[in-house]
Design goal:
Blueprint: H1 22-38, H2 44-74, H3 87-119, E1 122-124, H4 132-146, E2 153-155, E3 169-176, E4 183-189, E5 198-200, E6 215-219, H5 220-225, E7 236-247, H6 261-274, E8 278-284, H7 289-298, E9 306-309, H8 363-369, E10 372-376, H9 382-394, E11 398-405, H10 413-423, E12 427-432, H11 440-452, E13 456-458, E14 469-477, E15 480-488, E16 502-507, H12 510-524, H13 542-558
Helix pairs in contact: 1-2, 1-3, 2-3, 9-10
Length: 582
């Protein structure tokens, strides 16, 4: 009699070998951004752009993720991550992974990108390369534009170590009193928020080396550094060094204790600039030990918080070079296509559309024929989603528009559409997520503009972030009410929609319309909706349904049937807590 097969041993899914570390995984993502900057096949200005993106990403990484790890170390959190690391081990490994990447970044920028830009007529110059006329121009520029807004802050028993704002670029200056021989330490903030980071020369002072010069200039901090005598007359400037600080910017809003969430977030935004502890001090490798130690003591840091940089800091400002009129140094612009089914609609009754009257349709008639799935950035966001909302705002048959806003663009046509809808007498509801990280201030401004126009604005669900991207349009048609919906994966932002890959569904299915009605009642009121017809809504139904779908595929595999799981996400953490719901 054949022996029965022994049961396969159960897999211990809690073993660290099955998990990536969240922070190290993010660094690997940013390494791929850096790769685009290092890759010589990437067009030159696009390489500069990726340097800026890498630097900007890293700022946010320190402001949030590294800041949280430092808090955990300070409070002696001993809990291991699923991959088996303590907070301190994660910080140590972040440093090991990051330092080689920073070396690569600055070598590429200094040794490749700056010379290649010069060969194309774009000169980012050092002071050593300037002639007398250029130096004289910068001296006048300093006196007229920069000097009036500078405030040197000395450090002595009467002047405590200055509090510096988040991501500020500064000069540490050591001065000597020629009469007493005493040395003093002072800090000068570089006014990058008030003046352009790069000071451009007028055309007559730009270098001409066999070809037209498109742009030429220097870093703003270099202009300040070479004119310090004006700030300390009668003193001897012994040394000066650039440094930059990064603060903890993770807003600790206690929503359960806040009487007014908008006011509470406004208060935390003010704290973000100055209140968070310093989590990173960037200095140049040339900084003297005297100044280095003065900064470490003044900001109560440790050596491991110091990041030596071989070159310029705050490179996210390089993004401004993308505005240069050099199309041959950029990727060819992508022109999104309007979905074929929407190409026949009469957007705003253009007389020269060339369509016969019976051929003219509106977007609602197209959706009634069949659901429409749009794929951005390949298909036009403006010609589909924006048109859907804007058309609804002006359509006399539309009674109400409800939507969620997580991040939107600074000149958002969608927000303008909601305002127009309210002015046209429609009922308009907008959920504006005030806790969208680093977009809080922008969202507060939008919320106020919407409220001023008569839009009913709510700020989400207590304790949760509302990430969902949905629109519900209620329309009267031939005596009946029909609901139209847009359900998408991307923000309602026309700028990022030209770059990011996202999907969106336009539909008038009754069940989807009913689900979104219930969802908005949950988001705006005190509904405790526990079930939905088609939608999976976290933290109510999404997790259980996802687990059920996974189990279904497991069962298929065990039964010898075809089985497959494909999941695309940008972050999956905390197996026991669905706090990032909706």
């Amino acid at each position: 009699m054949p022996k029965a097969k022994a049961a396969a041993p159960e897999t211990d899914l809690s073993h660290p070998q099955y998990y990536f570390n969240r922070e190290l995984s993010w660094l690997e993502f940013n390494r791929r951004v850096l790769h685009e900057a290092l890759d010589p096949r990437t067009p030159l200005l696009e390489r500069v752009k990726f340097v800026a993106i890498f630097a900007s990403n890293l700022d946010e990484f320190f402001m949030v993720r590294v800041a949280v790890l430092k808090q955990q170390v300070e409070t002696q959190v001993s809990e291991l991550t699923p991959d088996g690391r303590t907070p301190q081990q994660q910080l140590d490994e972040i440093g090991k992974h990051l330092h080689p990447m920073l070396t690569q970044l600055h070598q590429c920028f200094q040794e490749e990108l700056i010379p290649q830009l010069a060969a194309e007529g774009v000169y980012l110059l050092s002071y050593a390369e300037l002639d007398q006329a250029q130096r004289l121009y910068l001296h006048r520029y300093f006196e007229e534009q920069i000097f009036p807004v500078l405030t040197p802050l000395g450090v002595d028993p009467a002047h405590p170590f200055p509090v510096m704002s988040n991501l500020s670029l500064n000069l540490a200056v050591v001065i000597e009193d020629p009469e007493t021989g005493d040395r003093h330490f002072a800090r000068v903030k570089v006014p990058t928020g008030l003046l352009p980071r790069f000071v451009e020369f007028p055309q007559e002072l730009k270098p001409h080396q066999g070809q037209p010069c498109v742009w030429a200039g220097v870093f703003l901090e270099d202009v300040v550094a070479h004119n310090l005598e004006a700030l300390f007359p009668g003193m001897n400037i012994q040394e000066h060094h650039i440094f930059r600080i990064t603060r903890d910017a993770d807003l600790p809003v206690r929503e359960d204790e806040a009487d007014d969430l908008l006011l509470a977030i406004q208060q935390e935004l003010r704290k973000r600039r100055f209140g968070g502890s310093v989590v990173r001090l960037q200095i140049l490798t040339s900084m003297s030990d005297f100044v280095r130690q003065a900064l470490i003591r003044g900001m109560e840091l440790e050596e491991k918080d110091v990041f030596e940089m071989p070159g310029a800091m705050g490179l996210k400002d390089l993004m401004s070079f993308m505005a240069l009129p050099l199309p041959h140094l950029k990727e060819q612009p992508w022109t999104a296509v309007v979905p074929k089914r929407l190409q026949v609609i009469d957007a705003f009754a253009e007389e020269d559309s060339g369509l016969k009257g019976e051929e003219v349709k509106d977007i609602f008639s197209v959706i009634r024929q069949q659901d429409l799935l749009v794929h951005h950035p390949y298909e036009s966001f403006t010609g589909s989603v924006e048109h859907f909302i804007t058309y609804a705002a002006h359509d006399p048959a539309v009674l109400a528009i409800k939507m969620t806003l997580y991040r939107t663009s600074g000149d958002s046509p969608i927000v303008k559409g909601l305002i127009a809808a309210a002015e046209n007498g429609k009922q308009v509801v907008a959920l504006v997520e005030l806790k969208a990280r680093f977009d809080e201030e922008s969202n507060i401004n939008w919320a106020r503009a919407l409220e001023d126009a008569g839009v009913h604005v709510v700020y989400g669900v207590l304790g949760l972030k509302t990430h969902t991207k949905v629109v519900l349009v209620v329309r009267r048609e031939e005596g009946h009410i029909r609901r139209y919906v847009h359900i998408g994966t991307g923000n309602y932002n026309s700028k990022t929609a030209r770059l990011y890959t996202d999907l969106g569904l336009l539909s008038c299915q009754d069940q989807l319309g009913a689900d979104l009605t219930d969802l908005f009642n949950y988001l705006t009121g005190f509904s405790k909706q526990k079930s939905y017809r088609k939608l999976l809504v976290a933290p109510v139904t999404l997790r259980d349904r996802m687990l059920a779908l996974i189990q279904r595929e497991i069962n298929h595999a065990r039964d010898g049937k075809p089985a497959c799981i494909i999941a695309k996400m940008n972050s999956l953490v905390d197996a026991s807590n669905y706090s990032e719901a909706l």
